[in-house]
Amino acid sequence: MQFENSREFAKKLDEQDPLxxxxxxxxxxxxxNKQVIYFTGNSLGLQPKNTKKYVDEVMKDWAELAVEGxxxxxxxxxxxxxxxxxxxxxxxxxxxxxITVMNTxxxxxxxxxxxxxxxxxxxxxxxxxxxxxxxxxxxxQSQVRFHGYDPNDAIVEIKKRKDEHNFRIEDILSxxxxxxxxxxxxxxxxxxxxxxxxxxxxxxxxxxxDIGAFVGWDLAHGAGxxxxxxxxxxxxxxxxxxxxxMNSGPGNASGCxxxxxxxxxxxxxxxxxxxxxxxxxxxxxxxEFEPMPNADAWQLSNAPILSLAPYLxxxxxxxxxxxxxxxxxxxxxxxxxxxxxKEIDAEVDSTFEIxxxxxxxxxxxxxxxxxxxxxxxxxxxxxxxGVITDWREPNVIRLAPAPFYCSYEDMYEFGQILKQGILDxxxx
Length: 428
What we know:
By secondary structure, this protein is of the alpha/beta class. The chain contains 13 helices and 17 strands. Keywords: Hydrolase, Pyridine nucleotide biosynthesis, Pyridoxal phosphate.
């Protein structure tokens, strides 16, 4: 497609957008009484308007039914979380039986480590990417210490090459081969939070299995953003938060994928709780744990219904639209944003360096941009002028135009505000 950096062209793209009506189904903050340009769906997605209805329904049932809401609410609470398995399975490429929703992301990763980090003898090392999101780093360090190992020895980081922003698949595979039989687990963020690079999860998972290791993925920046086929890729486990691209609200519940080959086993190591027992006998209060024959066996506690309600509301929208349509728009709007950035770059003294890979196979909704010659003042200018974006030291902004609610005109308008912010600084 031949892009143009004009408001008329952007409006034309919006008119042709099959998803244009969904923008009106989200609530936008305002700055100076004007709806913001929102680029931080990779941190916290906007609130869908249907969220209030789902939450109000739970509040009404609680008020009118109290404890009986567990069984007699319109959506009974005792199996509320089970409603999420089918729509989530379509988003992450799994079977519904391989999906459960519980707790929050880092809690779930710790719980999954019980099952999938089982160091023994010389096989005790964990492979991850360097400078992983801090929660993952802290989680892995505490896990290896818990098992009696030194993180400096037990954790092997895949490195980027000098002066390169992204990881090379050949270097990842070489690291896996070099650790070999010492590797117990590979756990990587499926989409790098800083650069937006998408990893070749299928190839890496196979390489990990070939050396006898378990392979899991942190999909905080992947779920609801990129195409995933966790079951077909033979991934052992994965977990993700729901509040970024899936718009479920701050700090909300986390989804888990556990491959079906680990289901219906009584001898697999895991921490267990009442809600993981078979639903048919759960209220018989048996002293023995009888696991659910699916991913729900990893459940521990009564589901947090008020947290799950916004997630279910958002999944309704995903089910209507489907990942194929979201990804199709994502590819176009990110490409248009990239075009706008390059056009503005040619008009100002500053230099923008996009450090996210240029190929669609290696990126999702996010573009990370080095603003060479600029500092925090430009970010502050953007925020004061209604562009909600994300700043990372030393001078990187992360731009994530979520296809559900971002428009092509937003991309054009952002370019104009960015240009004016640089020109204003240089004129002083």
